[in-house]
Amino acid sequence: MSKEIEYTLFVLIAIFIVLVIHLWLYRVVKKKLSLSLFQIAPRLTVSFYMIAAALLFSGIIYINYLEKEEHKEYEEDARNLARLLADGLSNMHHEQLNEQTDENDETYVHILQMMEQWQNDHSEILSMYTLKKNERGNYYFVVASEVDYKRKGKINDKREQHLPIGTVYRTYIPELEQAFQGKFAMEKYPTKDEWGESIGVFMPVFKQDGTVDAVLGIGYDAKIYKERLEKERQKGMWICSLVLLVWKAFYLLGIYMQVERKLFEKHKQALEVSENRFKRLAESIMEGIIVHAHGKVIEANKAACRLFGYVESELIHMPVQDLMILESLKKIEHNDQEELYEIQLRRKDGTIFPAEMVQREYDYDGRKVNVTAIRDITERKNNEEKMHYIATHDDLTGLPNKEALHRAITEKIQEAFDRQEEVAIMFLEISGMKTINDFYGYSVGDQVLLQIVEEWKKRSCKDVLLGRWSGNEFIAILSGSTKEKATAAANQFSEIADEPVIVEGRELYVTIKIGISLYPQDGMDPKTLIRKADIARYKLRQKPASQFLFFEEPMARVIQEKIGMERELRRALEKGEFELYYQPQIQLDT
Asked: Residues in domain EAL (predicted)?
């Protein structure tokens, strides 16, 4: 392969590799940023191609330089060897030989043998000969050794025999003329003939007086010469390729850094947009938003500042635990699920308020943070308490109603069971209310009830829970009771009820009937205890004065008999089983 073809292939392969890498890099960058390489790093890309072109051009110059240096080195080696051999010929009296010399001349034979020996000692030499110029100006061979052109190890061709002395040398070689002028010369390029390629060197052989006697011609094997030049060429190409790849690597690194910077800027811009959107959203909502990490507040919106009573600078870096009461903090620490909590929080002034919060974990500026949304539910809790109060208390007196009384009796029974105590259930009926309502109106009747209830609440012992059952009926629950304690409480209720009630300047009187049942003697559940206390109270309905009565089993039988009689009478009436035997008639006007 010629040098020019090698150069061309080298340049084309280098350009191909650069373009393939460039195309791959272009696709990667386009996929990530939708930008071209010139948009990512215009100056770097232009610089890369300019320097890459300069490297290729410089590489060719460098490769030529290496070839020339190798040629010079080869030439110097050939010069030294040729000088040594030429000096040897001078010492062997080569000047005595001419075209008239007989081939049997001792000097000729000796020189011929020595030249053949030199040729055998140096395998890179294809041929060796000496030339002289006759009076006619023609060059002729003086001594020309045998040549194994075919490299078979033997001389078997007529043309491989040594040339006879006086054979005319008809080839014109400028370097030969230069040698006859007393200067060493070497062919610039190898020459090719039927025996192959060779490159010739020519060294003048001087006489004793210093004039040129002859020229020693040496034909070197061009294959070895070319191999040495090609080796240097390839060395130069590898070095140039390495430099080009290093420059390409620097370019790739620069592009990578630019891409990462662009991606970082893009991510940063997106993050800033997201943060601004989040901040605008956080500022526009009523809920307080707190961002915290490692127990410290990082950011808070205006709603959170208003909620806790702090300015933003005070709230930032504040420990989160300072905003919560201990019980709420433990509740959150022991439950890492993302759910809605109802907790108690603390304001700057120390007041505690109920709040509803939800907490999520996010990645914020490369670190894990918790974003907590807080809603003040004080108003809702107050409304819930009001609704609960309305649902469980009497509108007029504010006492627990039937539903609340049932729950309270159940709780008291459970407590009494655990403590092995008794509970007294008192069924109170205020008599005389119908007369007051009919005569003075319901507003006066309500005032009477309110005054009596207020006195009961003021003067009752702490173990008594009073509730309104219906109309003028009330129930009192006495926990930790005995029959004696129940008797004392009943007397107190009666005494209060017997006192006159002053309403709108009028002195009004009522009486009270109290039926009492005891847990566990009279029953084990609220329904039974209330029913039996009501039976005992019913027993006292016909009594004019305030009285109380404990339940006894015969009372239940009497009630059952009365209920049974009423049921039978109703059925008999429906069936027409009554017969009229006597009907008195009275004249009212007489």
From this structure: 562-590
The predicted structure's pLDDT at residue 160: 47
151: nearest Cα among 115, 124, 114: 124
15 contact partners, CB below 8 Å, separation of at least 6: 56
Look at the chain and count its residues: 590
User: Where does 213-358 have alpha helices with state H?
Assistant: 222-284, 302-308, 312-315, 326-333
* Band (590; pLDDT cuts 50, 70, 90): low
pLDDT tens for 80-126 read 999 999 999 999 988 989 888 888 889 989 998 898 899 888 888 88
Separation of alpha carbons 457 and 493, rounded Å: 10
- Rounded distance between C-alpha atoms, residue 78 and residue 56, angstroms: 33
Residue 526 and residue 534 in contact, taking contact as beta carbons nearer than 8 Å: no
The H or E element that residue 76 is part of is helix 42-91
All structural domains of the chain with their residue ranges: 3-229, 286-381, 393-575
The answer to whether domain 3-229 and domain 286-381 are alike in fold is yes
Q: Which amino acid is at 233?
A: R
Give pLDDT tens digits for 145-189.
Answer: 776 554 444 444 444 456 788 888 888 888 888 999 999 999 988
pLDDT at 80: 93
* Homologous superfamily assigned to 393-575: Reverse transcriptase/Diguanylate cyclase domain (3.30.70.270)
Give the pLDDT of residue 157: 46
Q: What is the band of 38 on the pLDDT scale with cuts at 50, 70, 90?
A: low
- The residues, any chain, with a CB within 8 Å of residue 26's CB and separated by 6 or more, are 36, 37
Is the distance from CB of 66 to CB of 235 less than 8 angstroms?
Answer: yes
SS3 265: helix
Contact in structure between 482 and 422 (CB atoms under 8 Å): yes
Comparing CA positions, the residue from 275, 256, 365, 270 lying closest to residue 32 is 256
Q: Which two tokens stand for residue 352?
A: 């505690």
Tokens of 476: 């009192």
DSSP symbols for 214-250: EEEEEEEEHHHHHHHHHHHHHHHHHHHHHHHHHHHHH
Q: Is the pTM of this model over 0.85?
A: no
Buried b / exposed e along 253-262 (16+ C-beta atoms within 10 A): ebbeebbeeb
CATH number for 286-381 (one of 3.90.1150.10, 3.90.180.10, 2.130.10.10, 3.30.450.20): it is 3.30.450.20
Cβ neighbours for 323, distance < 8 A, ≥ 6 positions apart: 308, 345, 346
How far is residue 526's CA from residue 423's CA, in Å, rounded to a whole number?
A: 11
Residue linked to tokens 């041929």: 127
Three-state DSSP class for residue 201:
strand
